Amino acid sequence: MRHPHDRTTSTTRTTRRRLAGALTAGLLCAAGLAAPALAAPARPPAAPAAPAPADGLALTPPMGFNNWNSTQCGADFDEDMVKGIADLFVAKGLKDAGYQYVNLDDCWALPDRDADGRLVPDPARFPGGIKAVADYVHAKGLKLGIYTSAGTKTCSNTGFPGALGHEYDDARQFADWGVDYLKYDNCNNQGVDARQRYRTMRDALRATGRPIVYSICEWGQNKPWEWAGDVGQLWRTTGDISDNWSSMLSILKQNLPLAPYAGPGHWNDPDMLEVGNGGMTDTEYRSHFSLWSVMAAPLLIGTDLRTASPATYDILGNKEVIAVDQDPLGKQGTVVSSGGGRWVVAKEMKDGSRTVALFNESGTAQRIATSASAVGLPGAGGYAVRDLWQHRTYNTAGALAATVPAHGTVLLRVFTDPHWADHPPAVALGLDGGTLLRAATPAALTSTVTDLGRTTAHRVSVALTGPAGWTVRPASATSATALPTGRTLRTGWRVTAPAGTPTGSYGLTLRASYRSPSGTAVTATLPLTASVVVAPPSGTSYLGDLPWLSAVNGWGPVERNASNGESGAGDGGPLTIGGTVYAKGLGTHALGDIAFYTGGACEKVTASVGVDDEKGAKGSVAFRILADDTEAASTGVLTNEMPAQSLTADITGAQVIRLVVTDGGDGVDSDHADWADARLTC
To answer: Which of 681, 668, 641, 682 minimizes the C-alpha distance to 5?
Structure first.
């Protein structure tokens, strides 16, 4: 349960966890479609299933709830809460969707064992004991999970009893209580070999005779995917997740390459879900949920369902996405392509279909494209493609493409369906040209509507709208009688923001309507973002004093003229690298990305960069300066032991520059990065 972002060591754990627009817009048909609901396509012959483990445990990735991400050791973690979660599983349809484990994390016990060496549930939190809670959960048709550590103490600062040296007694106690799932952490392990510690608990659990799913939580330190296939049913591949974009993205990238090790009864575990905890947008949470499902990851809800929003329940309860995660073939998705932050991840399904995630890592909308053949499907006259967030089905000639919002994911399931022609053709919406505008100055944009289907789209029309008071006028045709396969309707637009419009981001909406050959009416919608900007000042300016277009940071907000600090705004100290203090600059944390508008009027960026002293010897990062997405300058990996490094980038002619911080290849723990004395010359 070690925090990947600064807060703990392997023996302690403190309080943890906690850009984008509408999610799946602009895909084959996008958010807010007015098309009729269409049945899912027929399935091709099933692929052979992987051999099932002899114990029959976790044949699909476990699904359930764990309290840590929302309550940690707070007073609201108690018997009433656990029972309330079980009630909500039933009342909100989560049990029907496949969630079954209600898991207790740390702090359920007293700090000391009893005179007989047995664990004692905290009577204030669990006055009826753990067995009573298990009985309540079981009566709902659900299962109970519990937590301990493969050490002398658990990870809490209080230091509750760990199971090292007590494995058989503790396992028997868990079994007697009716526990169905054990999360076994890695704190206070006394340097004992990980394989030995985790195998001992495996043997202890088996000796009870009770089927208990065994979750190995050693943070991926000893590559458990290489040796734990016959030890537990799932193993953590990374440090702990936090409720922010950078943490989720870092863990995704660490877990994706491990696909060959996943399968029925042995799953890669990139940690629990943060969906609903408030640190990311709904677009980012849909990406989180989509990508975890494509990776066949355990789906353990980490938000307090008692206060969850309807949007959170909509994400967690999407049965079509859950079906991807729970597919009995048990394949983890693999990366097809990932250039420029445009990810295509494909997962083979038992029925022969492929689930395809078009994931946009970047901070601006991007077109992401692949094909049915590229994701492993055989040649066919046409394909059926199901949008798993919009719950609509289309036909495609083989192209799979979408304009995906910043940090968004379009999730598709593609079939070689003999009845593909029963569905309307898929279309992809897009926008060419930049969406950076100056107030009172017309900007030229070009919208695109492309028929991806095997059939023709008829009576095609398109409209672009902006905020109240904006002027949006077409400069070319807005309709076409027909669009055959692969053809595009391109429409020019003149967009003007009123004089005096403040700088910032504003919404535009592109809508297209068309009819299928059978007359079915379809509407596609693509939400877009336009930024109102001002010309950069002439001369040399400190970047810490200038407005940015966007800022993504790995831990808390980017700080102006101060170090990153912790998760709160304004909590940084003086920018300090190698003992040298800088009055001006930007305090960031990997993974960080700050964009500034330069409008083709600037020549140079300079900075002294390095790891801030505030985290002691921790942290390793690399710095990059991009000019219109082309690298203009970079460093190698820098650590806290190194002095500040001078970085100069020629950005002549660039419209936008980006200051990017990546981790040093060892995760994002304590990666506090300073752009000290950062200056822009125009």
So the answer is: 668
Catalytic residue chosen out of the listed positions 185, 243, 593, 613: 185
571 is catalytic: no
pLDDT number for residue 448: 97
**pLDDT tens digits, residue range 319-347?**
999 999 999 999 999 999 999 999 999 99
Radius of gyration of the chain (CA): 26
User: At how many degrees (to 10) do helices 167-177 and 129-139 cross?
Assistant: 50
What are φ and ψ of residue 229, in 5° steps? -60, -30
Q: Find all residues with CB under 8 Å of 591, minimum gap 6, and list them.
A: 245, 246, 249, 250, 552, 554, 661, 662, 663, 668
**8 A C-beta contact, residue 156 and residue 15:** no
Active-site entry in 240, 327, 417, 669: 240
Which H/E stretch holds residue 247? Answer: helix 245-255
Question: Which tens digit of pLDDT belongs to each residue from 80-91?
Answer: 999 999 999 999
Q: How many residues does the chain have?
A: 682
669 is known as an active-site residue: no
Strand duo 585-589 + 559-560: pairing:
antiparallel
Report the chain's mean pLDDT, rounded to a whole number. Answer: 91
Contact call for residues 34 and 58 (beta carbons, < 8 A): no
